Amino acid sequence: MQKIKILTFLTLTLLWRITTRADFQMYDNPSFQTTAQKIKIYKEGLLVGDNNSNTWSGFFNGLYSSSDLYLNMQKKVLEGSRITDLETDADNIYATTYMNLNGKIGLFKISKDFQKVENIGFRTSLNVVLPFKDKVYYGGNNYGAYVVNKNGTGNKQLLGTGVYGPQIDQIKKNSNNVFILSRGNLYIADYNSDFLTLIYPIYRPSNIEPTDSEIFATSYNKFVIFDLKGNLKYEKSFSNPLGIMKKYLNYIFLVENTYTEQKIWVSNDYGKNFYESKLKYGNFTRVSQIEATGTDTLTIFINLQNYGVVKGKFNFDFDEKPFLGFPFITNNKSDLLDKITSYFDHRFPLLGNHTESSEFATTTLNFNGQELKQPYLYYSSHDGIDFGLPLNSKILSVEKGVATYFYQTSGLGHAIMVSHPNGYISVYGHLSAEGLVTKSSINVDKGEVIGKVGMSGNTNGPHLHFTLYKGARELQNKVDPFGWRGNFIDPWTTYNFTNSSKIVSGTKSTYLWEHQNPIYNLQVNLNDINIFADENIGLTLENVKDPNTYHLKSFRNSPIYDLNNYKYLPNTSYNFETTDLENNKTLIYGNIKFTNFSSFEDEKRFSVFKNDGTSIYKLETFFYPDSLSLGVKTTLDGQFMVLENNYKKISSTSKFVTQK
Question: Which H, E and C letters describe 621-654, residue by residue?
């Protein structure tokens, strides 16, 4: 096959789980040098609101935009006005301005095509705005907080009286409520009545980021989390005052202000643990804002006062150094995923130790954050990874350590437990009685044969059950060696239960295999042609004229198929996820080509199937004789794999089950 040229509009990042920590990778100089007051990533690209108080003519002021994430900005509207805040909804841009230049002052509603600009609300100097449902909430330094309908009617003052009112610092939202922060006082605004309720947290916050269940905040030198009633749940102290805070997905960015510099701290577990970045700024170029987009490798914009907007990438390796070798002899590098027949259940990996809620009793939550229902790789409450291997396959120790034998009649049968020097414990179950490395205890090396695949214990077919513990072999210490890469917090780390008379929660899982499973992250403009190539797969975007930029994520996944009628073609199981710049799921179309077929006859032997999360179905395929590739044209949303007809009639009603 002709080699596919890899093109990207912005960046193509192959994200490996590397053993050294990555960090911010910023451009040395700002691509857009301006006194930006506010930057905003939205579905259509990037907005910058300029606010140069030294240029009274307003020459540099106004609203700029870019249709992508390059900082090649074009001035759009509100020229001469000092922009103080920017927010968007599905249809419009909302901006507030400071000072009266050419009559352009107050709150503005701007169409996404910049053709229509309306001055709505109270016409005075303002500094914060937030659209929410059918209303717009806004405020200023002197006049308190207001709300107005999006059509410009019903303007009402929420906080303050007439021209007198407190300074409004931030207005934020969750899915249900609007939160107004004014000089350390935090209010919830009732959407229907516009009534304000004052929340009394133990600390007076200076920054807030609300969710539906809690509020992340800073207060002087403390990072705190409290519930929606103001009750403190967690706090962490820093040595110096905290400036800005940004929450994005599970990340929290904090800026700590010292006498000489600004330090950036990052958490990827909702503030439970923070890591200091190597990126620092002097006090002259103060960080006033951090914006992010993407998933694994983030595109980052940092707004620096008196300097400009700088752009870069952020990929921080929070995980421990991978150390696990293969637990079995492999034929190709895809075997680690291709042989999975049951996942570690991140909802409740308890295996009968506790009663699972009926809500989740028929599902398994895998390491991709996918909720799988019976019979797709289903084993609710499963506490390890099952690998489907032939009977008597040799099993290897994943790391050196002390191997100990044990037996469970109704559980793992003949099993070996290896205690490793770094504190982890690996367990290998359902082994054969023949070929065990020991029946008592012995030292083993990494890669040493410790047993063979059997059918002992509670099993309906030959396979290896592999469980990993971080620390002692206790229920709460069970972890998934494939880690967790869902877009929400791992439920296992927040689930509380009683074990040995103690209230405990599950342990964080990190990717620990030395063999890397690459995750491809692309920021692509749909005018590009060929954008992705890997081993035996290529992807091109098809007949799309939408100029917007999107995130495309691709990664290998374990296959799901009907073994009675199909044979899986190894190394062809891929997941594709596409989101817009606001990280909302979206649909774009592509032509996926699977390569390395041997002849034109393969067109009749192989089919491409798609798992969209609810069902698995066969796609219409196209065979390309010149490149010996099998292609499908489809939306890039789900799992795709190539299956071979096992010389039986392909049935449209075939029941898909996990391989045995």
Answer: CEEECCCCEEEEEEECCEEEEEEEECCCCCCCCC
207-211, 326-330, 352-356, 622-626: least confidently modelled range: 352-356
Neighbours of 348 (CB within 10 A): 24
For residue 475, the 8-state DSSP code is G
Residues ≥6 apart with Cβ < 8 Å to 647: none
Q: Is the domain covering 335-505 a CATH 2.70.70.10 domain?
A: yes
Q: What is the average pLDDT across 585-609?
A: 83
pLDDT in tens, 25-55: 888 677 666 677 899 999 888 999 988 766 5
**Residue count of the chain:** 660
Q: What is the structure's pLDDT at 14?
A: 36
More confidently predicted of 321 and 33: 321
> What topology is assigned to 519-645 in CATH?
Chondroitinase Ac; Chain A, domain 3 (2.60.220)
pLDDT at residue number 319: 66
- The per-residue pLDDT for 67 is 81
Tell me which residue has tokens 């980052």: 300
Would you state the pLDDT for residue 543? 60
CA distance 81 to 125: 11
Give the pairing type, strands 566-568 and 629-635: unpaired
Residues in a beta bridge with 609 = 618, 641
Question: What six digits make up the tokens of 154?
Answer: 């019903």
How many CB atoms lie under 10 A from the CB of residue 622?
14
Which of 299, 176, 247, 275 lies closest to 489 in space, CA to CA? 247
pTM surpassing 0.85?
no
Token pair for 149: 């309908």
Give all strands (DSSP E) within 121-221, no chain letters: 128-132, 135-139, 145-149, 156-159, 170-173, 178-182, 185-189, 196-199, 207-210, 214-219
Q: For residues 576 and 637, is the Cβ–Cβ distance under 8 A?
A: yes
- 3-class secondary structure per residue, 436-474: CCCCCEEEECCCCEEEEECCCCCCCCCCEEEEEEECCCC
Using CA atoms, how far apart are residues 428 and 113, in angstroms rounded to an integer? 60
> b/e for 168-204, b at 16 or more Cβ within 10 A?
bbbbbbbeebbbbbbeebbbbbebeebebeebebebe
Spatial CB neighbours of 514, under 8 Å, sequence gap ≥ 6: 322, 323, 324, 325
Do 519-645 and 335-505 fall under one CATH topology?
no
The residue ranges of every structural domain in the chain are 335-505, 519-645
pLDDT-based confidence at 1, cuts 50/70/90? very low
* 3-state class (DSSP) for residue 278: strand
